[in-house]
């Protein structure tokens, strides 16, 4: 039973590119996070063993990439290429303010018994009722929602609003206003609600050039916030995951994961 | 020479003589590299809480086609954060073209743009320089406004800036 559960979880994680504990890092890395003139950026995406190096797999970008302009409109990625080790795309950032670049995956996995046979199904939540018999024996339904994102600002930073879906970072300190030696406050929300007790991990990039990862564990307080002082400038990988019953359907166990690439600037 | 004259006048003329203000001498060092480009420079006054009291000068690639010179304004990193990103350049009386190595004198008169009316208090005059294919340097000169008497202070840069000298005219 335990084995079946964990292998199903692993399969789910693989399918969703969701970073389970000790899984690979999944990230989007923009060429710039602060721009003083509207124009193109290019973004690398990868599933890696080190931060931020392309050494494992490309990001599987299909219809799951969302580039959101400051006014909430969608920007289409250009020149999207998936290589063997990384995925690359360009984005033309024409408006002033903060862009959110996110790869969002959401999927359901169900398994149940028909006689001695184990049935499995994976698909969008909307299809669950039509594809899986509600009274199936030993029915287990798991939902995975992952968000992998980064932020880029042209000119003056603008507010980053929560989408209200799944686990996400909601800035108190703006994500393009992070500076070495200064305390930054960030918050996590689940379905738009500030959530206490979310455990997050922060790792500085350039892991290739040091012996210890130097992971920093952070936990959100009663207001769903945590505060951290970045000692060094550079790119950081922030990741968090929580599990619990799905909102709307208590029978579905849901796993929400989040990762962000954050750039911390020198003073 | 000019400085001595200003000080002498300030001392002798008790009646309304020179308008109060700030003079800044900024030395851009000659850097002997083949790919030398004139640095971008920002000069501003900030309060102890880091808020900007006045943007005094910004030298950048103002004449480049299609506003291309604004692309690197963000490299004046501190200025960009403090106020640059709030501004629409060019700004009359503040922005101008980049300057050649040498010492450049800037004079600002109290009550007139861009210095304007400065509330009494502690300030920092900040000079930030950033050079393409080169480095970046920030210098601070603390000052008290208004000055009781003519005062001067200077700081020495190490790589992208030479001497920055500030004279306060009461």
UniProtKB/TrEMBL annotation, chain A:
It comes from the Bacteria. Keywords: Signal. Pfam families: DUF4198 (PF10670). InterPro entries: DUF4198 (IPR019613). Residues 1-23 form the signal peptide. This is DUF4198 domain-containing protein.
UniProtKB/TrEMBL annotation, chain B:
Pfam families: DUF2271. It comes from Pseudothauera rhizosphaerae. Residues 1-19 form the signal peptide. Keywords: Signal. This is DUF2271 domain-containing protein. It comes from the Bacteria.
């Amino acid at each position: 039973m335990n084995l079946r559960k964990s292998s199903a979880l692993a399969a789910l994680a693989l399918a969703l590119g969701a970073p389970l504990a000790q899984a690979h890092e999944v990230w989007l890395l923009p060429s710039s996070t602060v721009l003083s003139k509207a124009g193109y950026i290019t973004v690398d995406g990868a599933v890696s063993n080190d931060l931020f190096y392309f050494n494992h797999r490309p990001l599987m970008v299909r219809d799951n990439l969302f580039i959101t302009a400051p006014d909430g409109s969608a920007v289409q990625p250009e020149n999207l290429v998936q290589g063997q080790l990384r995925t690359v795309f360009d984005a033309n950032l024409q408006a002033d303010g903060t862009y959110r670049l996110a790869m969002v995956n959401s999927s359901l996995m169900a398994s149940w018994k028909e006689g001695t046979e184990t049935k499995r199904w994976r698909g969008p939540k909307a299809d669950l009722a039509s594809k899986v018999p509600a009274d199936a024996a030993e029915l287990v339904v798991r939902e995975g929602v992952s968000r992998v994102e980064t932020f880029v600002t042209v000119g003056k930073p603008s507010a980053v609003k929560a989408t209200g879906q799944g686990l996400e970072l909601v800035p108190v300190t703006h994500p393009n206003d992070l500076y070495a030696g200064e305390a930054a406050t960030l918050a996590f929300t689940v379905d738009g609600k500030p959530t206490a007790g979310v455990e997050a991990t922060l790792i500085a990039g350039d892991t290739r050039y040091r012996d210890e990862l130097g992971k920093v564990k952070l936990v959100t307080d009663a207001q769903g916030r945590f505060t951290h002082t970045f000692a060094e400038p550079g790119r950081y990988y922030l990741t968090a995951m929580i599990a619990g019953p799905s909102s709307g359907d208590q029978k579905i166990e849901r796993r929400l994961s989040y990762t962000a690439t954050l750039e911390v600037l020198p003073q | 020479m000019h400085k001595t004259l200003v000080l002498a006048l300030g001392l002798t003329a008790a009646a309304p003589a020179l308008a109060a203000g700030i003079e800044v001498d900024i030395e851009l060092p000659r850097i002997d590299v083949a790919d030398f480009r004139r640095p971008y420079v920002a000069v501003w006054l900030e309060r102890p809480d880091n808020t900007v009291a006045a943007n005094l000068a910004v030298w950048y690639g103002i004449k480049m086609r299609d506003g291309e010179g604004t692309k690197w304004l963000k490299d004046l990193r501190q200025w960009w954060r403090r106020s640059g990103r709030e501004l629409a350049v060019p700004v009359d009386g503040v922005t101008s073209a980049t300057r050649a190595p040498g010492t450049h004198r800037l004079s600002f008169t109290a009550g007139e743009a861009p210095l304007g009316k400065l509330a009494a208090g502690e300030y920092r005059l900040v000079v930030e320089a950033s050079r393409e294919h080169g480095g970046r340097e920030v210098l601070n000169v603390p000052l008290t406004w208004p000055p009781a008497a003519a005062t001067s202070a200077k700081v020495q840069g190490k790589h992208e800036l030479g001497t920055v000298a500030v004279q306060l005219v009461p």
